[in-house]
Amino acid sequence: MSENACTCVIAEDETLLREALAKQLRQTWPELQIVAECEDGASALEALAEHKPQVAFLDIRMPGLTGLEVAAAAAEVTPRTQIVFVTAYDQYAIDAFERGAVDYLLKPISPTRLATTVQRLQTRTGNNDAAALAALLERLGARPPAPAAAAPPLTWLTASAGRETRLILVDEVAYFRADNKYTTVVTAEGEALLRTPIRELLAVLDPSTFKQIHRSTIVNLKAIAGVVRDDTGRGIVRLKSRPETLTVSAPYMTLFRHM
Prior knowledge:
Layout: E1 7-11, H1 15-28, E2 33-38, H2 41-51, E3 55-59, H3 67-77, E4 82-87, H4 91-99, E5 103-106, H5 111-123, H6 130-141, E6 156-161, E7 164-169, E8 173-179, E9 182-187, E10 190-194, H7 198-202, E11 210-214, E12 217-220, E13 224-229, E14 235-239, E15 245-248
Parallel strand pairs: 1-2, 1-3, 3-4, 4-5
Antiparallel strand pairs: 6-7, 8-9, 8-12, 9-10, 11-12, 13-14, 14-15
Helix pairs in contact: 2-3, 3-6, 4-6
């Protein structure tokens, strides 16, 4: 990989860590152009699809889409992007990284280790070993780490509908839609307003049931009647209990190939 005109996307949900990594990269690799700094997996995937950078630094644990899910989608959206995982994983995962097609950085990131990673990236051709990357993601995905004190997924929501405050069972939600700083909760019966940004919801929803399909939309997989792809590569979601359809951004379609 040439040192000149090299572009990069950084995805890290903790602001201080993201800013620190960007600063370290600018010091270690002055020629590198950071085209996007993302705070969650959804924005990272969209930035990868838009910029198709030569390099992406992905935190594995992020709200909504994890770094592993972003990498899996990126393998199709931008296959020439070199992936570097930023992780606090245990030795099991480190062994997997050592045998894989990507590099990794352990938190906290040391300048010496980052310099080694930069040297590796600069000497690569830019062609990923797709099979090796897929095997790595499969090994890591089979044993995703969970925080020791992880809270159970959200069960109930308190939302507003006019002057009325409603208690809504999360399983009854068809989808969530971003509404400025708030979130619209849509059920078979109607809509209500939740005073929680959609990004914060991602961290407390059950990831096996709720998937982000667009920067502004999270859908309940149990509420989906079908998914089709249009001529532009976007997906159209039909719902069981609602007449409207939902758009799946093209980068997210790779996450729904098995549906």
